[in-house]
Amino acid sequence: MDDRPAIRRLAFAVIVVVLAALGAYLLGPIYHGGGSTAGGSKPAGRASPLTSPTTPVVGLAAGKPDIFQWLPFTQAGLAAAAATAVKFAEAYGSYSYTQDAAEYAAPMRTVTSAQLLGQIEAAFAAPGVAATRQSEKQTVVGTATIDSIRTFGPGSLTFVVEVAQQFTGSAGRSEQITDYAVTVTGAGTTWQVTDVELATLGNS
Question: What is the pLDDT of residues 57-71, one digit of tens each?
Answer without folding.
Answer: 444 445 566 788 888
